[in-house]
Amino acid sequence: LNACATQEEEGKSAEDIVCTINITSGCTYGCSKAETSEEYSIRDLNLLVFENGFLYENIRVQEADAPGYSLSVSLLKGHVYSFFATANFGEDIYLNRWEDIQDLYYEMKDNSGFSGGIPMTASAEDLMIDGQKEIGLELIRMAAEINISLNRGMLSKGVEMEVRNIRIGTSPAWMRRRL
Question: Model's pTM, two decimal places?
Answer without folding.
Answer: 0.73
